[in-house]
Structure formats: C-alpha cells, structure tokens
TrEMBL record:
Coiled coil: none annotated. InterPro entries: CCR1-9-like, GPCR_Rhodpsn, GPCR_Rhodpsn_7TM. It comes from Plectus sambesii. GO terms for cellular component: membrane. This is G-protein coupled receptors family 1 profile domain-containing protein.
Length: 124
C-alpha cells in the first residue's frame, strides 16, 4: 500500500511542480509571462499540459496500481459482453418469430413482379 501511495504522490509532484513554480515566480513578480516572451509562454503552456495530463492519467494510474479494481473491471466487462450477446440473440429470435414477411416463412414463394398485383380484367 505504501508503494502505491508513494507512486501517486510522486506522479502528482512531477506533474504539478512546474505549474506551481511558475505561479509563485509570477506572484512575486520575478517573471512576466506574456505572448512577447515566447520562451516563457511555451514553458507555461507545457506546465499547463502537464497538469491536464495528470488529471487525465489519474484514473489510469489508480487502475494500474489497484489489482482489485482491475479484477472488478474485468468481471464487469465480461458480464456486459454476455448481456449484449444474450440481448442480441433474444431480439433476433423475436424478429424471426414475429415477422410477417413472406421471405421469412419456409416453403413460400415471394410474389412475382407487378403481374401478381393486377387481375386479368385489369390488364385489358
């Protein structure tokens, strides 16, 4: 457990330290970040990307560290696969049983072209 907590803390520290450092330097007027200072703007943007990366990677980090969470996820995904498969089969069985299409019934011939729609009297 201690290694897991240490990994989360180190990851947080690595991602947030550049942002906090830039904020403190800016707060005490030691640097001025503007579009005219291209290098500082790029560094600030990179620090902001690290913060975003930390937020996006946290769920993955917790999932990789926690074995129980991985096992629960695997069980849930297997149940979902089974549920989708059974629902699909049930829907196809229902459609097959309740379809009134002449193409679905065995032994029936599909209606021919327009000739079957008209009687002999209509053709004259």
């Amino acid at each position: 457990v201690t290694k897991r907590i240490a990994a989360v803390i180190v990851f947080y520290f690595c991602c947030w330290t550049p942002q906090w450092t830039l904020n403190l330097l800016h707060l005490f007027d030691l640097i001025t970040v503007s579009w005219s200072t291209l290098t500082l703007s790029a560094i600030s943007f990179g620090a902001h990307l690290l913060v975003c990366f930390n937020s996006a990677a946290n769920p993955l980090l917790y999932a990789l560290i926690n074995r129980e969470l991985r096992q629960q996820h695997s069980i849930a995904m297997e149940k979902r696969r089974q549920s989708l498969s059974s629902a699909t089969h049930a829907a196809m069985d229902f459609i097959g049983k309740h379809s009134h299409s002449p193409f679905r019934r065995k032994g029936t011939v599909p209606p021919s072209s327009s000739a079957s729609r008209y009687s002999a009297a209509d053709r004259s």
